[in-house]
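Teaching note: in complex prediction, the entire set of molecules is handled at once rather than each chain in isolation. The prompt given to students was simply: 'Predict the structure of this complex.' The entities are:
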Amino acid sequence: MKECVGMLLAGGEGKRLGLLTNENAKPAVPFGGKYRIIDFTLSNCANSSIQTLGVLTQYSPINLNQHIGNGKPWDMDRRNGGVTMLSPATGKHGGDWYSGTADAIYQNIHFIDQYHPKYVLIISGDHIYQMNYQSILAQHKETNADATISVIEVPWEEAPRFGILNTTETLEIYEFEEKPANPQSNLASMGIYIFTWETLREFLIEDANDPDSSHDFGKDIIPAMLGQDKRLYAYLFTEYWKDVGTIQSYWEATMDLLDEHSGSPLSVAREDRSKQIYTNEANLPPQYIGETGRVTNSFINTGCFIYGDVSNSVVFRNVLVKQNASIHQSILHPGVTVGENVVLERVIVMENTEIPAGTQVYATKHAEPVVLNQENILEHFSEMEGMN
Amino acid sequence: MDRMMGLINLDQEYHVFNELTYFRNNASIPFAGRYRLIDFALSNMTNSGMEEVAIFVRHKYRSLLDHLGSGESWDLDRRHGGLFILPPDWNDPSDRSRGDLSFFHNNRDYFNRGKANHVLVSGSQFIVNTDYKEAFNQHIEMDADVTVVYTPVAEVRPEHQAYFRIEKGEDSKVLNITNDHRNLNVFTGVYIIKKDLLMDVVDYCIAYHNENLFADGIKDRIGELDVRAYKYDGYHAFINTIESYYRENMKLLTEENFINLFAKPFIRTKASSNPPVKYQSQAVVHNSIIANGCSVNGQVENSILFRGVEVSEHSTIKHSIIMQRCTIEEDVYLENVILDKDVHVKKGQRMIGTTDKPYVVAKRQIV
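The expected output is the structure of the full assembly:
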């Protein structure tokens, strides 16, 4: 028996991340110099003693499956419990794709049942933050709630973009509004839920039998619970949290890593060893900074050779930056080669791309950062030649 | 099928590491930013396809055990075979074995149970990135009893003194194994031997009260055995003194050497979960090897920083080796220095050694 089983929703495509999710599920997108986005949630589980976890995958799961493996980096290679990858499957009574977040959990009720948990933690693999899930669980028990939803205060003008929870002073939820035009509160749902399993189980079955439901936690399950006067509480989270749903926010979250005062996870991890971020380690040689290399305010990972100028950037493993190249406010994914005299500013370069010598690619200050891969780099290169 | 099993014999290794071996044995001395000396022998063995590796170790092995763990980092956490760390003692009142023979004698089970029919023996101080498949092929083709791996050196250095020299005749036949210091063909400590023969040599050595399996059982019986030589002439280092340790680390700051030692196949080490290196706004780093988890806000030149080192602003580090989790406060100047793990250098300190005699600070000191 496990007190609390975690269910991590990692099946999303992340369409708004454009090229970055061409061959990768959003949770598997590289982030922070050596991690994938999902590592932050997985590490939260490891650091919160959540050792029984189902990872729900659907879109492009191969990278995720290989990355998570038996869960060893997060101490989830357990004989009893540990991590289980849950992709849609067929069974005796057929089977289907996961049609929504609630449906994904519904289709795995038998998986959760085998641990006889009292509580279920529902999280997703596409946010950058550090949270000890034991805190939200403790509040859930204290308030004797049926559901507890983690919320964060967002600026009022941005509230209409979020799922907003209206609460009493004691944080009891009385209303949920998806993207309200005139918000009454600025407490946005972070997509992190604790449910008392017995209650959730009933609502999932009810929801699955409703042909009009979209099978979504925010749109269907939470309103249904409120409609039946269940006890729902908000858990107020006040630390760093970032959704990396768009190229702009992906780039911003990366720049936050470089700011010591942003409170973003890597600076916290350096200070506090109980909040480390874990990943599937590559075991490569250390980085080599050459005679002509110059690196400031940046993160650089193992296996890199740096002979050019790198500033305010994040560089993943096995990247080669040649002489007189200048990389500013950019993100270089694993295996990228940057030729001589290349200039990049506000650019995200995807895995194994070779940037020919002399290429110059900028995104202006207010424009969305440019994403380069081996296919579109040539277009940029010829455009530039056309300009000359 | 012909197969090899591995043996890393740390019992007869000669070394003068002073401060660096106060708290550990020579095989677990940190090297090249994130490795330990033993990683090279271990990785070469697994890169040669060996699935069983044993280590003979007698002293100061807490750090080594911590490093090796289950052998997972080298894919040696196996259901069959894997990593064996073997002690010299056994409760056998009739045991007459001495020297490294007590390891061989008391761990016969390891050899008998292994599926391989040849054993590759290595120390930890010959630093190289290779696999031994070619040497093994030669060993099999020539049906040799023993194949010794040697490397020709350009000049004799002090670290070569401890190694035997190989006198070679036609067809790679070894005529003599000597201490002739003018001979530039240096034995690397690596040899391949038929497993059944190894067991016979163990019996022979114990029968004649010998203490050193290779010197007494193989070198001194060269006429009775078919010993062949295999030449390795790639990038390598012999490390058994502070001076050779410092020099070989510094040599890696030349790109060509670094690539020669670390190109594929990969040398593996115990993985840690450090974030990438953080270069702060005042970082000036040239010609250096930096491992993950470091945070650099000072000047680092021609130096090696191990994992988790912190360099504060206005500090300068030149020609130095700074091991894991050292903290360098502000306004510090270090040149030709080796700081062992967890050393804390206070604000304003200056430490300068020479190229021949680097200044060494032992583990966990506050200076």
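Point out the following to students. Chain A touches chain B at residues 32-34, 72-73, 266, 269-270, 276-279, 281, 283-291, 293-302, 305, 310, 314-315 (CB under 8 Å). Chain A has ten helices and 28 strands.
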